């Protein structure tokens, strides 16, 4: 490792080697004339190395990722052995205050990237992130959760056919790698266009804090930093307890009726085609409609809502594993 004397400049502030500093990004002035700011925690080593950005709360109601980064900071995982770690535990302060996914202008922040200097409020904020923060970093982990009622098994989502992303995802090591193409307007797509190495972590559901998912996110982050030789010596790397399942394709099973829903399977299970995953009933004893697995696959996400409507996504199931990876039929 080589010592560095170069200061790190972000948002007009300087962070010297060995320093941790909280820098505030002003995003708006409310109609009450109150300034709304996003705290950004920057930690530098005295040694040269990569720059990693850890973000959560892009959707303000996805609390588990926020808690993962809170613990990363609280435990000092963000103090790097080399390089720089930038933590933004709560990107969408508006949504967090309102317990909402969206910005106050009704837009999904994760569909307006790379943003515009003269666009909507969400678009302007996205523009600031892409102009002032992302160009400074080499690697990104963005923490997310499922929508309301929909519980995602811990998974890393990456673009296919990228060997470096494969290696980073395997280092993070959680239940599943899910290969999926970038969505236009997403933070992931905008970062990819700038050549940044980006992992999207999904786990849990909105407006919920799940300790098992938090532990998966924490241990994955530790392994990721260790892979980059950035993990400080205060932490021990725990080997993953399972082999990751690599999913090339998947599909959503949707409710054919509205009604009360009961689940018979658990997230992460491998099921055979024709397995009854759950059932939808009416309050009067007239309808009892089974939900069947359309193919062999892993249950990646499960809708835990007690009431569903026709067309609602109720199960996310894998349809193809990478390189015909052996299907393990026990629950993981």
Account of the protein in words:
This protein is an alpha+beta fold. The protein folds into two domains: 220 residues, Zn peptidases (Aminopeptidase); 76 residues, Beta Barrel (OB fold (Dihydrolipoamide Acetyltransferase, E2P)). It has six helices and 18 strands. A hairpin with a 5-residue loop joins strand 3 and strand 4. Helix 1 packs across helix 6 and helix 4 packs across helix 6. The chain is globular. The two termini are 39 Å apart. The C terminus is likely disordered.
- Ranges where pLDDT stays below 50 over 5 or more residues in a row are 327-332
Written as H for each helix and E for each strand, in order along the chain, the element string is EEEEEHEHHEEHEHEHEEEEEEEE
Specify the helix fraction band. Answer: 10-25%
Walk across the major sheet and give the strand order: 8-9-11-18-16
SS field, number of helical segments: 6
Count of distinct strands: 18
Q: What value does the Rg take, in angstroms? A: 21 Å
**Mean pLDDT over all positions:** 93
CATH class of the largest domain: Alpha Beta
CATH architecture of the largest domain: 3-Layer(aba) Sandwich
User: By helix and strand content, what is the structural category?
Assistant: alpha+beta
Q: Distance between the terminal alpha carbons, to the nearest Å? A: 39 Å
For the record, what is the CATH homologous superfamily label of the largest domain?
A: Zn peptidases
Q: Beta fraction of the residues?
A: 25-35%
Could you name the CATH topology of the largest domain? Answer: Aminopeptidase
Shape: globular
Largest sheet, in brief, is: 5 strands, mixed, barrel
Number of domains: 2
């Amino acid at each position: 490792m080589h010592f560095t004397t170069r200061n790190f400049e972000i948002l007009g502030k300087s962070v010297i080697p060995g320093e941790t500093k909280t820098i505030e990004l002003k995003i708006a002035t409310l109609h009450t004339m109150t300034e709304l700011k996003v705290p950004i925690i920057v930690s530098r080593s005295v040694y040269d190395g990569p720059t990693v950005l850890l973000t959560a709360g892009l959707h303000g109601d996805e609390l588990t990722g926020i808690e993962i980064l809170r613990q990363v900071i609280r435990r000092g995982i963000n103090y790097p052995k080399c390089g720089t770690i930038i933590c933004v535990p709560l990107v969408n302060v508006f949504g967090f205050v309102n317990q909402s996914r969206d910005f106050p202008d009704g837009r999904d922040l994760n569909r307006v990237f790379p943003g515009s200097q003269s666009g909507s409020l969400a678009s302007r904020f996205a523009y600031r992130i892409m102009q002032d923060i992302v160009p400074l970093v080499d690697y990104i982990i963005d923490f997310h959760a499922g929508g309301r009622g929909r519980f995602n098994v811990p998974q890393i989502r990456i673009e296919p056919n990228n060997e470096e992303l494969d290696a980073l995802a395997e280092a993070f090591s959680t239940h599943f790698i899910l290969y999926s193409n970038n969505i236009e307007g997403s933070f992931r797509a905008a970062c990819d266009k700038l050549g940044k190495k980006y992992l999207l972590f999904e786990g849990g559901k909105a407006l919920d804090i799940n300790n098992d998912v938090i532990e998966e996110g924490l241990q994955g982050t530790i392994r990721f930093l260790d892979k980059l030789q950035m993990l400080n010596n205060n932490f021990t790397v725990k080997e993953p307890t399972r082999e990751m399942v690599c999913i090339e394709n998947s599909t959503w099973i949707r409710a054919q009726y509205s009604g009360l829903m009961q689940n018979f399977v658990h997230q992460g299970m491998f099921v055979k085609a024709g397995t009854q995953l759950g059932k939808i009933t009416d309050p009067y004893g007239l309808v009892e409609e089974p939900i069947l697995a359309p193919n062999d696959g892993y249950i990646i996400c499960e809708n835990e809502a007690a009431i569903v409507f026709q067309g609602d996504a109720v199960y996310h199931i894998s349809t193809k594993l990478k390189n015909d990876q052996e299907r393990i039929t026990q629950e993981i």
